[in-house]
Amino acid sequence: MQIAYVTETYPPEINGVALTAARAVAHLRAAGHRVLVVRPRQAGEALCDDENEWRSHGGPIPMYPELRYGLARRGALRRRWRELKPALVHAATPGPLALAALSAARAEGIATSADFRTNFHAYSRHYRLGWLEPVVLAWLRRLHALADCSFVPTAALARDLQAAGFVRLAVSGRGVDATRFDPARRDEALRASWGAAPADPVLLHVGRLAAEKNVALALRCWERLRQERPALRLVVVGDGPQRAQLEQRHPQARFVGLRTGDELAHHYASADAFAFPSLTDTFGNVTLEALASGLAYAGFDAAAAAVHVIDGDNGRLAPPGDEAGFEQALQAALDEAAPDSRLRRRARESALAADWSAVLQRFEQRLCAVAERRAFDRVGDAALA
Known about the structure:
Order of helices and strands: EHEEEHEHEHHEHEHEHEHEHEHEHEHHH
Radius of gyration: 22 Å
Strand content: 15-25%
Keywords: Hydrolase
Strand order of the largest sheet: 4-3-2-1-5-6-7-8
CATH architecture of the largest domain: 3-Layer(aba) Sandwich
Structural class: alpha/beta
Protein name: Glycoside hydrolase
Pfam families: Glyco_trans_1_4, Glyco_transf_4
Helix content: 40-55%
CATH topology of the largest domain: Rossmann fold
Largest sheet: 8 strands, mixed
Shape: elongated
Distance between the termini: 26 Å
Number of helices: 15
GO molecular function, one term: hydrolase activity
CATH class of the largest domain: Alpha Beta
């Protein structure tokens, strides 16, 4: 079927949503669907408007200036949908481009779906804009009300959103490429470049370095733990507005910037433990990547960890928001971070069950079901007319 896939972030941008969107589009195309990607034109990119991609106008996102939101008039999108005749319009991100695209699709009687990927309303409190939280939540609720089905990554998030007035939700998990993220990619030369001897434990964090990601907690815990573990190294992969500040405060940590693809996989596999302190992620793909890489995982019992990590079996968890508990979980993970530990073996085994192909096949089937229901309703309406 013909699908219009609307997203405000997409490669060459580097973030979890962009990479997941690209993976979903690649799967749908490989399955025989015709997919038009609608996204904002990024800085320095050429115009594009063909059967595979349409790049709209846009601007930088406040608080995330390296990312862009898209802009398109509802009337222009209605004309576009009449020409394209998509069976379904899917919005992967909740910006103005998605709102216009879904509104235009509903006006044309086209099936609609959307992803709820990011707790944008919760981000505002980390930027001293807490008064905006109900405003942003209302915007998200308005956008998702236009979707015949909204996909969320976990059942816990679905319950929270239902309590906040969201409707027509479906749980659609995330997967991991366990071939790429594999303990076999461990690289002693890379470890040596971090200043780690073969027996030295290395703690890893991967993610955006921003206030809402709570990265400072992991660094504070590491500083305290290394008083008792002088050989403990910390490697931080990622970039963001807090990087310079964090580097200044923690000069002994190794900040290596963005890493992608096989290079990122080597960084995972060459560490021993993983710290994930975020409380705002709706899922957190890095959790599955760390588990697939066989790392001793420490995090809060939320998002992906609440689904895929069992405390004491394949990782260590703390109650959400319990900072002392997080440090204890990290300490326990480090106690079990030897390369041949049971905890690390179980981490790898649990990730092997979260295969992307099965996740994306379910997603595809649900998109087809949404489109079929709308087509059936149109036939019924025509018969009654």
